[in-house]
Hints:
Blueprint: H1 3-7, H2 35-53, H3 57-82, H4 90-104, H5 112-133, H6 140-159, H7 161-164, E1 177-179, E2 182-184, H8 187-209, H9 212-222, H10 224-229, H11 234-260, H12 270-283, H13 289-307, E3 311-312, E4 315-316, H14 321-335, H15 339-348, H16 358-363, E5 395-406, E6 409-420, E7 424-428, H17 435-442, E8 449-454, E9 457-459, H18 464-469, E10 472-474, H19 487-492, H20 503-507, H21 510-530, H22 546-559, E11 564-568, H23 576-591, E12 595-599, H24 603-609, E13 612-617, E14 620-625, H25 634-641, H26 645-648
Parallel strand pairs: 7-12, 7-13, 10-11, 11-12
Antiparallel strand pairs: 1-2, 3-4, 5-6, 5-8, 8-9, 13-14
Helix pairs in contact: 2-8, 3-8, 3-11, 3-12, 3-13, 4-5, 4-6, 4-11, 5-11, 9-11, 12-13, 12-15, 13-15, 21-22
Amino acid sequence: MAASDLTAPDITTTTTEGGTDRLARVKPPIYRGMPYVTIAVVIIGIVVYRNWRTEGFAQESVFNDWLLYAIVVLGFYFVFGLAGQFAFSQAAVFGLGAYTSAWATFNPDHPIFLGILAGAAVVLAVAFVFALIMQRTEHFYFAVGTLGLQTIIVLIVTKWQDFTHGPGGETIGIRPLEFFGETFSTDYAVFKVLIAALAVALVVAAMIERSPVRREAIAVRDQPVVARTLGLPALRIRIVMFMLGSVFAALAGALYAHRAGSLSTDTFSVQLGLYIFLMAILGGLGSMWGAVVGSWFFVYSTDYLGRSGIEIASHRLSEFKPIVFGVLLIVVMIAAPEGITGLARRLRRSRQSAAMPLFLSRFLGTAAEPETTNDLPVESAAPILVGERPPLGDVVLEARDITVSFGGVRAVDEVTLQIREREILGLIGPNGSGKSTMLNAITGVVPASGSLSVGGQRVGLRRPGDVVAGGVRRTYQTPQRYIELSCIDNVLLSTTDRGLTGVVSSIVLRPLMLRRERARWRHAAEALDRVGLLDLAEAPAGSLSYGAQRMLELARVIASDPKVVLLDEPSAGLNDAETELLANHLRSLRHEGVSLLVVDHKIDFISSLCDRVIVLELGRLVAEGDPHGIWEDERVQNAYLGVSADTEA
Length: 649
């Protein structure tokens, strides 16, 4: 299962230019390192520390608390750390898994593992329904929704005595853990079960981190609109990650129920949900190890506060626990936003400065684009220079009577356009004329009316996934890249091969997934090589210079094997050399049969590149013609230069 991670071969594809073997020098990060060996070493270290340093029933119980919370917070890492969904419900599903397992094993003839599976199944069903209902909410609204879920679960458990077998959510007499005929009733015996469960959870987490699931979850988390225009199933990804994180908590809750022997709703309060968030932040959201470290810090800090004899104003220090951890959370988010594990990474890479994860800073309303740390050159892989324009083919994209309204303003007013195969169509107009809105309407980013067909097939205007499936790709006015991902991962997001990219494939069908991933990675590397960015394949996308960001977007388009590409001011911010390089790449795409719709303000760029130009003014199509003769049209001159009052008279 995991052996293929370690033995996968290097990519050996060679470039045709000069016979250089550039792609053979790189290897997918998914195949590097030995995470499973690291997990084994950590687990062995925990076992040794437990047997060597832990004495007394109280400390044995604290140690088991740590292992349980580590599993719960590891699930929260998937929900919040990767998917960016702030869920107060993590404590509630922890409790739901516990109560369900206790209920399912109330009959002594039912095995314990059946109760654990029942807890996981119930939580999966609840998480699926909740995530489906909350699909259109983000950030604070999603958090408020999870508070509602927490309240509903607690209310049901409190009132449903047939489920809890006790009043007010009290459940007693829960059977201890029992597997293979052996009963695990002591703290040391329970430790054996918990350490095995943590080991399995870490292996599963490592498999997911070393799979397409991670990059796609981050893409949907950071820029969901861009992710949808790349063809990512945003809804499915958010639902799956919420379910995955919830089932981790449910399994931990089931183990807790059979370890504790009794349950109370106070154990799974909103306060625990806040502490889970605190543990994740303290440990660090950038890695699964943050869950282990953060839960350890919290559990043993809580234990220290409880045992400390320090008094403040005649009150024990433990009474100030919420204040202490609240202050600690503020300090950590300001001084060490990457958490404890992030500090360790920064020590290894001293050139990187502290930065709050982008999605978390957006959640807190403090988002800021990272500074470009490297002025990286944009080099060409010698794109094809074409003198003659190829013959045009049939109509490949037709948009009819496209209308977009914002309130009472029509940003696009019944615009119709056609793009033929191998055609470069220019779309020009003054600022505010509706050019970008037209592209947004075609790609389903904004609601629009009218009709759209791609390759002769009708496509829904408000369905970005259908537009992408038709072979339409786009770029944006401002380069849209995922700054927490490498350049190669940014390009991999646009792949048309999405087979075996889910959670189940990453775990159950891992060898097959790895084989498909190698092919995807090779294709993405070739796209980067084509635009001259192969040497920066593993550089963070956030560190690229502006010109390199434009080339990265182009590489993402190339890797998607498009039929039609919509480019929104692709030359903006580029110097003359970079603009000419861009034009050569676009001509090369045209010769490969790709059709292009180019929005731009550079007259020379449009005139030399396009076969035909259409002009928008105030959302309406006012002119269409040859890229050179169009500028002689009086309507175009009026649109750009305006019309004086005397002329109108």
